[in-house]
Amino acid sequence: MIEVKDLSKKYGEKHAVNSVDFTVNAGEMFAYLGPNGSGKSTTIKMLTGLLEPSSGQIKIFDQTYSLDDIALKKRMSFVGDTPDVMGKLTGSDYLNFIASIYEMEENRYKEKRQELTEMFNLEDALNQLVEEYSHGMRQKLVLTAALMHEPELLFLDEPTVGLDPKSNRLLKDYLKAHVNKGNTVFLTTHTLSLAEEIADRICIIYQGEIKALGTLEELRSGSAHSLEEIFLELTDGEDVYEQTTLEN
Amino acid sequence: MNKQLLKIEFKSTVNYFKSLETAKIIVYVFLAFIIAMWLLPILWMVSSSFFIQADNILIAKALFIITIGLIIVHALFLVNGLIKDLFMDSSIKSMLLLPLKPRSLFFVKIFKQYILKVFPISVLLSIIIGFPLYISSGSVIILITNVLYFFTLGIISLSLSYCLVFLVTKITSAKKVGEILTFLGAFLSITPYLFIFMGGQNLRPIIDALPDFSFLYENVLYGGFSIKMLAAIVVCLLILYFLSHIVITAVTNIFTSSQLESTVVKSRGKEKVQVFSRTRSLIQKDLQLTVRDFKEWSIVLPHYLFPFLFLFLISSNPAMFGGSSNPDQMILAISLAGSVMISLFVSAMNTARDARDYQFYKVLPIDGKIIIRAKYLFNSLTILPVYLVINILMYLFIQASLSSLIYAVIISILVVLTTVPIGMFIGTINPVVSKKNPSNRLDIAGNVMITMTVFIIIFAVGRVSSFFFIGNDINHQVILLTIGVLFITSAISAYIILNRIAKRYDQGYHITYKD
């Protein structure tokens, strides 16, 4: 589904992402973790074509991906780290616009829209301007827009930021079901419990390099460590962790 | 505490000026030079010759008009800045959580506004009005009363602007108020022309019709020494003290009591669940973004007034037509010049707006050709009907012949269709994205291109339109030939330029992100 070989991005002399290799399989929930500034967003932007790699290769659906490939883009969705939606559209206008651009069949659109807006408890806000929405409501709206055409490949950059606990739970369940249907989700998050709970495989990136990649069991490699402990150990956060533990 | 806060505000202001681009600094220095070397001396000359020579009744009337005009205009201008500084500034909320007194915070904010936006006006008026009155009376106390009077007017304007803001934010959100005021501000930018061209002629009858205000100003701002002067000084000082206290207290109370937290949430009618063609959905999206945003109106609508300015220029300067003109020639000249100017500017601005959401479009499954086709249709469909109405209004105003109206309409349509792609092209040359100032969308090169074109058109259009006439009669052959040429150029322009812009969209283009 996604094949990344020797992918690098340099800003001047600094490597934001340095020679990264990984594969994401069809029907997999893949969590991409790392501390702030580790290269998560840079990687996801390169995968979605928003940023040109300095070197390396990206294949999506066995094709070299480019933003010009409209047919390929129709099979994907991307939710960025900030839910930027044109403020002067209503939620309904925005969803109509996205459905039109993805050329969704009208009845299917109505059905999915109802399902998702009900799930996120967004129906009553749909005829308000987006600029009047809270951060969480905007996040729900962009998630609805990204999910309603049932993409085979979904990129989510910090999807749970701003969501209330109920929506958070429902989103997790929805994503699990979505993956069970054979679709793929590539997810970046700081919420380690989210990755621990729903990801099939986890990749930890630090200072632009992959530090660990595998299932949770493989990362634990037989130990009883939690994902948080493994994460801190791999990202030089262990010292902080130990200090905090001692203080407590 | 106040000292620390003032230091921070001072530093942020200095940093703002430090971060300005060289081009902007040059523009500011140039403007300051023009104001210091040209505008101020002219104001001083006009004002001093008037206030030194005019009789007392006329001086009183002039002072009254200046007082009323200044308070209203100054308050309106202050409102916009005030909304940006207090309502749109998210740092206020976080500053309120710091261990400092809210009153100190708002005192500093209001003080900054006063120093930057009120104090210079008060000083300017004290110089151009107070000084001549001091010279004519020879009494220092006259200068003191004038200075105090104009400083008091400044505080009154500031207080009025706060009143206006708090009153209107009860009705709608501060953001909407900001949009409406930007919209009004754009129209206000045309008012100096109206004052110069029309107001000047009517000022004298207005002054004559006013009652005598000498009882207010004589022996206070001009004339000889009297006890009234001392009373005026006391009154001004009291107003200055109490109004500044009231403003600071009111602003602190309103902001800290969360009275501004309730935003007005408006439902936009019944929601429609519909899937359209991609082109139609893009046009509809553009239409919604334009119609619902007063800031967009403020960018676009004032340009539709320029044909009327052309009408004024043409009718008052027959030299533009080589010495003579007739209504038919005027309507054709305006249809040419106005449609070029409007379609160039409006389509450039509408296209440059997309830079803000460029990343969003890039991840959508849609290619540049569809986006550009939709944008072309949106621009043409929004510009053409308005310009057709303008043509009809012109026809009614100047009583041209029906055949010239028909030609003007056809020429306008073809000129718009030819020029819109050029405007769109300019809108994709390094567009600017500024959250604080969304109307600032074109870079210097784009603005220069449009301004140069407009100047050339203003000077050339009279001569060009004279080719359509033999004496006072319409030369149908030349006009039909022009229409044929315009028809071909509109097709070529749409094909070649739109394809180039679509490629630009697909390949990516340079965008400057400000603030």
TrEMBL record, chain A:
Q: Which SMART domains would you find in this protein's record?
A: AAA
Annotated coiled-coil segments of the chain = 102-132
What keywords are assigned to this protein?
Answer: ATP-binding, Coiled coil, Nucleotide-binding, Transport
Q: Which InterPro entries match?
A: AAA+_ATPase, ABC_transporter-like_ATP-bd, ABC_Transporter_VariousFunc, P-loop_NTPase
Q: Which SUPFAM superfamilies match?
A: P-loop containing nucleoside triphosphate hydrolases
Which parts of the sequence belong to the ABC transporter domain? 2-232
Classification via Pfam families: ABC_tran
MF (Gene Ontology) = ATP binding; ATP hydrolysis activity
Note the PANTHER family from the entry.
ABC TRANSPORTER ATP-BINDING PROTEIN ALBC-RELATED
What is this protein's name? Answer: Putative ABC transporter ATP-binding protein YbhF
Q: Which organism is it from?
A: Jeotgalicoccus meleagridis
Which gene underlies this protein?
Answer: ybhF_2
Automatic annotation (TrEMBL), chain B:
Which superkingdom?
Answer: Bacteria
Transmembrane segment boundaries:
25-46, 58-83, 114-135, 147-168, 180-200, 220-243, 304-324, 330-352, 376-398, 404-427, 448-471, 477-498
Which UniProt keyword terms apply here? Membrane, Transmembrane, Transmembrane helix
Please tell me whether the keyword Cell wall biogenesis/degradation is annotated for this protein.
no
Question: Is Transmembrane given among the entry's keywords?
Answer: yes
Q: What name does the UniProt record give this protein? A: ABC-2 type transport system permease protein
The scientific name of the source species is Jeotgalicoccus meleagridis
**Which lineage?**
Bacteria, Bacillati, Bacillota, Bacilli, Bacillales
